[in-house]
Amino acid sequence: MEQRVRHFQEELDALQARLLEMGGLAEERVRVAIQGLVQREPALIERVMRGDEPLNELHIEVDSRCFTLLALYQPMATDLRAIVAAVKINTDLERVGDLAVNIAEAARRYVTHAPVKKLIDIPQMGDIAQTMLRDALDSFVRRDTRLAQQVLNEDDRLDGLKTQVFRELLTYMLHDPTTVEPALDLILISRQLERIGDHATNIAEDVIFMVSALDVRHHPPAPISE
Amino acid sequence: MEQRVRHFQEELDALQARLLEMGGLAEERVRVAIQGLVQREPALIERVMRGDEPLNELHIEVDSRCFTLLALYQPMATDLRAIVAAVKINTDLERVGDLAVNIAEAARRYVTHAPVKKLIDIPQMGDIAQTMLRDALDSFVRRDTRLAQQVLNEDDRLDGLKTQVFRELLTYMLHDPTTVEPALDLILISRQLERIGDHATNIAEDVIFMVSALDVRHHPPAPISE
Predict the structure, then answer these.
(1) Which residues of chain B does A94 touch, with a Cβ-Cβ cutoff of 8 Å?
(2) Scanning every residue of chain A, which has its alpha carbon at the shortest distance from the alpha carbon of B203?
(3) What is the model's pLDDT at position B70?
(4) Of the four listed, A75, B46, B148, B165, which is most buried by Cβ atoms within 10 Å?
């Protein structure tokens, strides 16, 4: 039985390592897409457009690992919650990869036009989204609800920037019709970045749910006194 | 043991009934949001903005039912796959509710401007997205991969309409700056509808994965003959 517990823990560690690897890949893809946009570098943009395969393969592998863990070890309580959280996180990370492709598609169109403006807020949104993603995964591996809460707070900052980007670009579009097409692509890119922040938020919420359910179990509420 | 199997089946049926109920609510919210947009009816739009609570409550209930089923019955094979699929579908349906709110927010801004054009493609996109959602859930409950495949095909039609809507509205924006703001909101609404189609697609893919893994188990590949 002791050995069975050890095996389970090893498998769970391997699963978490794969999720971190996926997170690293997803983050990298967002970084390169934004870099390609800012530097107007088609080679970087193309790399993101074509490079979704490793993330998709990990997505399938992680799903399969989760099933195996559930079927072979029939985990309970926290372990069960951790694996169900992993199933959800896996889905979130795969979608972040898709969103990086969407950003690259819009960037590819954008660089065929004259630049609308110097890009400051969008790269900042990219940095925030990447940090949120990294922190959300760290909070999962470390069962760190404070870090998870920090991710939720960052999401407000991302939403604020998105609104600011929208207002500014709208002004350009209203005053100069030649900016309409490229400004639209920047607006779409800022919304993809917001969605990446939403996926990080989902992960952080799963972590809080997973850990606080544990806390409730370990510290049952005191009996009501009269 | 027989009784245990029957109890499990009853619980699984109850879980599926809740998912269908969620699907019905999500579909209704999309329908009302688009109706509010087309009829320019603030009361309908407000109803969608404020009415996310029942769907959120079902989301928590379904998650909790999935955990209970996994923990109490430790299901294997198809049953395990069905419950993991339910966890994912639950997430998709909750997000559709959020997207209906996003549509309502854009609609609320849209109706403060003069109409850009008679809305034809967007209501059609709404109809397709709702049908995809309904069919995806039906395919889950009936384990019907053909219906699931049909959902995947419909997604191409939705994407085609989204591109058409984008091109048409871009033309308006380029020729008449007064249309920039409202046309932007219509573009955003068409993207939310596309995302609803993506969630239906996710559900359909989960169904195909769930059922085909079952088929592989029931019909192992014939041994390789020399």
Answers:
(1) none
(2) A91
(3) 95
(4) B148
